[in-house]
Design a protein that fits this description.
By secondary structure, this protein is α+β, with helices and mostly antiparallel strands. It is 58% helix and 14% strand.
């Protein structure tokens, strides 16, 4: 790779962060429906005298309801929470379950599930339990390894942690492995 790392870093950041397409589409659909309903309501209000009287009857209790302080506060709090949620969705970065690393020769993007499977395979081989009895969850800064032992056969937690640490060192990600051995085993 060249000494210019701006482009690979930008590509890695793009691969590791999620887009905001889902919330944006949902908001656009909801706003479109609300505006279409409003347009139909305005057209019906302008063209139909019966609709005007019916709508006036529907909305007659609203001014009295808004005169009550508790109702006005509840509406204000609900709108504030909606605004904060939309603001957070727009500003906070999304995170995909991926890890990235930039080396002198290559840029590496690895899915957390693939990393968890590699750790689980290495731990199962090292401590001598079937692969189905080892579960791994990769979090932001740690890898949680859950081992269900075979009934009557002890499990060496230090060896499991060492195997996980070796896999993490080989791929170059700084995660701290944490091993939890189940109290009850499975029958082999």
């Amino acid at each position: 790779m060249t000494t210019n790392t701006a482009t690979p870093r930008r590509l890695l950041r793009r691969e590791a962060t999620a887009t905001r397409r889902g919330p944006a589409i949902a908001l656009a659909v909801v706003l479109t429906l609300v505006l279409a309903l409003l347009l139909v309501g305005v057209a019906a209000w302008a063209l139909d005298e019966g609709f005007r009287t019916q709508a006036a009857a529907w909305f007659a209790p609203v001014p009295a309801l808004l005169q009550m302080p508790s109702a006005a506060i509840a509406v204000g709090v609900a709108l504030l929470l909606l605004a904060l949620l939309l603001f957070a969705l727009a500003v906070l970065p999304g995170r995909r379950a991926r890890r990235t690393r930039l080396d002198t020769r290559a840029a590496l993007v690895i899915d957390d599930g693939v990393l968890a499977d590699a750790i689980a395979d290495a731990v199962a081989r090292r401590i001598g339990v079937p692969r189905g009895q080892v579960g791994v969850t990769v979090a932001r800064r740690a890898a949680l390894i859950r081992v269900t032992p075979t009934s009557g056969v002890p499990v060496d937690a230090a060896a499991a942690e060492e195997a996980a640490a070796r896999v993490l060192d080989e791929v170059g990600f700084r995660l701290s492995p944490r091993v939890q051995v189940g109290r009850e085993g499975v029958i082999a």
